[in-house]
């Protein structure tokens, strides 16, 4: 028993020291974190501290036309020199830390201008890396997702290109205290080649920088990540332009339908008008309520006007057809009444003149070509005068009936001609509109 106790005490006495604790003490002593006031920037009271920045865009997550913003995930890296963090090293190797040391030292207070939401990823821990070199140079990297505003112009939508920018700036330090710059110019921005969007083609990424002025605080260095997006048109061709064109072409079918088929032509016209209204409503529902006209609005509303005019065209045809049928009915009724009149043969001359006086002035004028005969007593030629008057009156009525029949025939032909000309005018005008539209916006 005593031998076992002696062996146990000997093993405890020979237990190796805690490497973790000794490493922690050496790190704190090496960086001298507790010996300096890190609430102030490096070289406080001296010239502005230069802070280099570079960005690696990991993904461009979404573009929202309704909210006029975009969401981007990126790696944001800062480079500066803080002599308070310098340490001696025989191997000249840097030391890397996670986000816990960031809270104890000074780091640049860079924020995203015009950002709506942003956060640092924290799975499984905060995605923050701090690397300190022996000469005091510091690399501070973090992985951020930011949603920022983008002023979009939809006057050429959906044949448009949008230019957006992500802006970085120091929140507290003016250009007299902190000089923010792109570390390697345009090469400071790198993009993953696999980045793609469903509705846009990423055309260009580039960097710029300038000074921003605030009346109450002064001048600040501001960095810009600019990128241009061109919208894919194929989706809108299938969902908007092609259906609208089909509805316009469908409205032309009524020009080939018999004008007396009222239910068929009316239902076709109403269906195309309602379908165009639905297409217009669906497009505007996915767009912000801007106060100017978009390119898609021009196309859809012109198409709507063509569909509506086809309905009005049938209204005109139907009205003229009704007027023509009414006149034909009056002519038939008048002809029936004339055929039912009693013959004037054997009547006295006075009765014949009374019958003849019932005609209109236009009809009596048809006798202007005849020479006026002298008055002859009834006893001399009684029957001949009566037969002559009856013959002239019937001949005059027959001439007037023919004139009205020709006029009615012209109305009928013009009614049919409206549909005939519409078959050429409507498609021709729509083709000309499409040529002008696509040449202007493409």
TrEMBL record:
Transmembrane segments: 233-254, 266-286, 298-320, 421-440
Residue intervals of the Neurotransmitter-gated ion-channel transmembrane domain: 240-369
Compartment list: Postsynaptic cell membrane
Catalytic activity: chloride(in) = chloride(out)
Domain of life: Eukaryota
Residues in coiled coil: none
Pfam families reported in the protein's UniProt record: Neur_chan_LBD, Neur_chan_memb
Single GO MF annotation: extracellular ligand-gated monoatomic ion channel activity
GO CC terms of this entry: chloride channel complex; postsynaptic membrane
Main location as per UniProt: membrane
Keywords: Cell membrane, Chloride, Chloride channel, Disulfide bond, Glycoprotein, Ion channel, Ion transport, Membrane, Postsynaptic cell membrane, Signal, Synapse, Transmembrane, Transmembrane helix, Transport
Family label: Belongs to the ligand-gated ion channel (TC 1.A.9) family.
PANTHER family in the record: NEUROTRANSMITTER GATED ION CHANNEL
Protein name, entry field: GABA(C) receptor
Organism: Cyprinus carpio carpio
